[in-house]
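hey can u check if this looks right to u? its 377 residues, i copy pasted from the old doc so theres a chance i mangled smth
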Amino acid sequence: MEPFKNMYNEQFLERFTKDLKLVIPDFDAHGFISRVMDDNWENRELKQRCAHITTILRKFLPADYKEAIAKILELLDHIESIHPRFSEIDDKKFGLTLEYGMILDNYVEQYGLDDYETSVAAIEKITQFTSCEFVAHSFIRKYPDKMMKQMLFWSTHEHWGVRRLASEGCRPRLPWAMALPDLKKDTSPIIPILENLKNDPSRFVRLSVANNLNDIAKDNPETVIDIVKRWQGESEEVDWIIKHGCRTLLKQGNPEVMQLFGLGAVKNVSIKDFQISTPEVNVGDSLVFSFNLLNNNNQKTKIRLEYSIYYRKANGALTKKVHKISEKYYACNSTTPITRKHSFKVVTTRKFHSGLHQVAIIINGKEFEKHDFELIE
């Protein structure tokens, strides 16, 4: 698999400097690229490469921050005139690439934290082309009250990318981003923003609302449960938001959440003839298991069917991760054969450790008997 850091390569830097020449005709593209791709370039990881590019870029832009930002915004205007922004209707999130976004984001974060007004205006413009949630976190940390008022204002902005930032930028547990401990403790500044956005016409904005709710649920499940009770049934789109926003609570088998989504107790529902076809699994191959699902109720029953894998950690302890199979109605007095394959293909997000692992079936949040299997390097 190609390392993610390689999105910053010579071809990207040539494209980036070509765009910069639109607003700085005498921009020294060769000097910029040679200083970026120095002797340590290959050893830098993704975030290090991004920070390094930003540091070098500062030396090639006006020394005054306001003037440098003016050039960046002028660049965006030029790019828009040549390549109009993609709309979410085109099934594209933004008109610039992730590579651009991380650099511009990083520039404002590194050099603009002390110039609130200039930076907030820049963020509002930049996020219409790419995503600015990471820098928003830094500004929320430094200017919590002022910035959350700004986020609330942005939640009514005419551009969907700015409205998305209003939610995405204050997610308490945004991956890769600086933590927001104050918002983990007190979610009250977030809720009015989500209220404004729950019926947004953009599906990307609604997805961000759902992801924000899921973040909140990890620290404040009662807050999300209250929102579900208030929002449920408003519309098909809002029902999707709250269901997706409760995915962690559903995987945890939270009884109140299960009931809210019509997933009751598993009375007269059971599993039979559980079998592991691959009791020894080589890393790179798949675990294969099967069982029969018995619904002995005299009426069709809504069942959320999942399985948990207990992964072995480096210290020998087992850690649980839940995977969904299906959620649907099963016919009354029915027996349904089910076979599942679970891949142990090597990925960058998980390191496998050989030895004992376990698998168990979960029905409407209730976990059944665990079964052992061996993972082999």
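The mean pLDDT is 93.
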